Amino acid sequence: MNDAIKIPAKPRLTTSAMIASLATEGQRTKPAPFGHALAELAETRRDIVGMTADLGKYTDLHIFAKAHPERYFQMGMAEQLLIMAAAGMAKEGFMPFATTYAVFAARRAYDFLCLAVAEENLNVKVVCALPGLTTGYGPSHQATDDLAIFRAMPNLTIVDPCDALDIEQAVPAIAAHNGPVYMRLLRGNVPLVLDEYNYKFELGKAKLLRDGGDALIISSGFMTMRALETADILRADSVDVGVLHVPTIKPLDEETIIREASRNGRMVIVAENHSVIGGLGEAVASLLMRSGVRPAAFHQIALPDAFLDAGALPTLHDRYGISAEMMSTRVKSWL
Fold this sequence. Notes:
Layout: H1 15-18, E1 29-31, H2 33-41, E2 48-52, H3 62-67, E3 72-74, H4 79-91, E4 95-101, H5 102-107, H6 110-118, E5 125-129, H7 146-151, E6 157-159, H8 164-176, E7 181-185, E8 189-191, E9 207-210, E10 215-219, H9 223-235, E11 241-245, E12 248-250, H10 254-261, E13 267-275, H11 280-291, E14 298-303, H12 313-319, H13 324-334
Parallel strand pairs: 2-3, 2-4, 4-5, 5-7, 6-7, 10-11, 10-13, 13-14
Antiparallel strand pairs: 1-8, 6-12, 9-11
Helix pairs in contact: 2-8, 4-6, 9-13, 10-11
């Protein structure tokens, strides 16, 4: 007789739910903004080469590969080799755009990026998909600590764009910068929101997208889109929230952050798609402390210091408090 306890089968999550787009239903999107922007830039910049560790399709580099096949290099599933080959290309005068997943660049290839690229201050651009909690495939694919890992690396510029427009404008900007860059990437059909705010990406500059007297949300990456949605939700409750977008994590636009955080004694909230440890929140907190800025209150909306669950992406965003609905609830509780 079989006495084994029968466990009811749970509904199986679909793949689409785990890699769902960040766009909400009906939201405007643009397909593969990084791939199209790089392919267009490469028409005039003959030194640009595209490289990937077996993830061309999943980092939108396949658009570049189709337009410039003679300058596309598929290095296989070997992130260390990818970075070392990119360093060699840069030594020979090329400008490699090397793509992989953020978790692989930050963990597997760290030493190679640090010693072969950053120490040599080589002109290599590392562009990485799946930053923070943008996939439901669990800790092996969730780069929740990449900013903490890379912020301490000398010479490395760090960029965290919000939407398709930000990515399109960031590509030529980081190409114009002479030195290594790490850029977080939103791939596929990427939401388009910043065109409504007369926005223009400038490397190293933060942008005030909307003003507000009750609270200021300082954010990067797609969390700026969530911050704008949160501000709209809270407006219905007569809560006036400003949003300061910080697409460059390093170097930080200290002047703008200090100026906006000093105004009106309002509450300051830092929202980021990253662990609460070592990212934008702690960078802003230390800046305010060093500068003697004392906002009415300071809070962080970020991912917990934990290995996160796998599952459907919208469910995970609610669970970890980075959906607009959860953010608005938390902000109201702090007022």
